[in-house]
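Sanity check

After download, print the first record. It should look like this:
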Amino acid sequence: MNFKYDVIVVGAGHAGCEAAAAAANMGSKTLLITMDMNKIAQMSCNPAVGGIAKGQIVREIDALGGQMGIVTDTTAIQFRMLNKSKGPAMWSPRVQSDRAQFILKWRGIIENTDNLFVWQDTVTSLIIENKTITGVKTAMGVNFSAKSVVLTNGTFLNGLMHIGKTQLGGGRVSEPASFGITEQLREFGFTTDRMKTGTPARIDGRSVDFSLMEEQKGDDDFHKFSYLDFTPRTLKQLSCWITYTNEEVHSTLRDRLGDSPLYNGQIKSIGPRYCPSIETKVVTFAEKTSHQLFLEPEGENTQEYYLNGFSSSLPLHTQIEALQRIPAFRNIHIYRPGYAIEYDFFDPTQLKHTLETKLINNLFFAGQINGTTGYEEAGGQGLIAGINAHIKTQGGDEFILKRDEAYIGVLIDDLVTKGVDEPYRMFTSRAEYRILLRQDDADARLTEKGYNIGLAKRERIDLLNQKREEMNRIIDFTANYSLKPEYINEGLEKLGTSPLKHGLKLKDVITRPQVSIDSIAELVPAFKAELDKIPNRKEEIKEACEIIIKYDGYIKREQLIADKISRLENIQIKGKFNYEAILSLSTEARQKLTKINPETIAQASRIPGVSPNDISILLVLLGR
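Expected structure tokens:
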């Protein structure tokens, strides 16, 4: 039989699902190969999507026409907007999802997307001819041919799990590891290494004394991930719960550190510094007498809970004994212990910004294979890899997001320019243009881009245009409507802000920190009437207007800076220099520039070890 496809995606995690859906929706005949069709988009760790900076990525995926935001909104059992006490550049949406419903929703999307087909099997090797990928071979002995292949192997490449001295081969608990691909690619010259991550025990809620914990409820408002117009959170909304470790817990853990794979030499790979295991916390923060833990529900109709903050690879009996020292867990029962997992990844500096590999044409990497961690980081990479895999098969200009356009752009540029020395996680601090990359304006930044490449549908453009029209109308009204002191001062004083000494435009009053659009609308009937004309998504549009009005100066200033830097992004240098021959460059710069082979002067300037003086030399050689 003739098994021919335009795009093959290997692995059905969050990166694989977004890659496959994107390529198929853009028109490529796409095959998604997964070990287990019943675990499509499995949430291997906590049952949550979003969070600090990660929530921004999910909104960007949605704005471009991806699926993660839709799936998350429709399977949510709790929503929270984090960092609301800070400026809007820091606001980050986060959802607890029903794990089982999340899988079912994604599977429904995959199985009902035109051009998208699924095969349950394990890929054991790649078919490569003349440095170009032409297909894959599977454990069942099937050969599939393709014009492009996207690898999204997660933690499965030579995966090895650790629970104390017990070692189990696998990419997730009860799921086999994948062998052969790392070794094959290493022979082609790829650099690879090992990383480690971990997960906590899963707890039976019936054994927890919730009266000894602090309840954390979700938000009940208009916010959601997707920019499409639908009602989110149709499932029962549940609480998370907060508790703390104590000295007894820490003493138990310290006494058994010799049994920890992290400390007895059993694990040698690179672990996540920002998400340490509980035993690492006890050692690193020895002065702390307690650590905060979050008990998070796994679903609407299950007793399974995820214990955020208690990742561990200690022996089973040690984990249980330590947990029993926490009052709320004195009668604890668990479904399974925490464990650590080691797996292969590839140095992401071996990739182009499209996520195509430099060594093999039409082969793309996305997700943890690139040294990242997190569903959101994986989904963002998968989307970009799927888009560009389609473009390589059908023709067109490569699709790349810049650092001032999206957190996804920051993520990919960091990976391919700087590489990784630990599992990469996105933070707001990694983005130099945070005010431009807010979670509220991802649609304004990206939906037209998604539509122009054939991914975002007409519905999204129509919704964006309606939103812009309403925002412009409201903002123009505030810029032209004058307030007189005799009519407004009493109301302003009640809001805790100073009275007017003379007439002032409504827009200028809204910029005051004590004043919101809603509060001033109660004092200005004409303005309230304008707001009431908004036909739908009223709260979303009001919030977007308020952010633009209050932060207009900051936004414009940051855009000016971004525009100046973008001039360097337009200076192409790839293929123009033999860096080893430019002796005026530092030795480190020559080595790094040769290895990375940057596309532009701006990318070169972000390479660790390349100094401003090195950049000046390159500019002089270019005649700039």
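If your output differs, re-run the checksum step. Summary of this record's structure: The radius of gyration is 26 Å.
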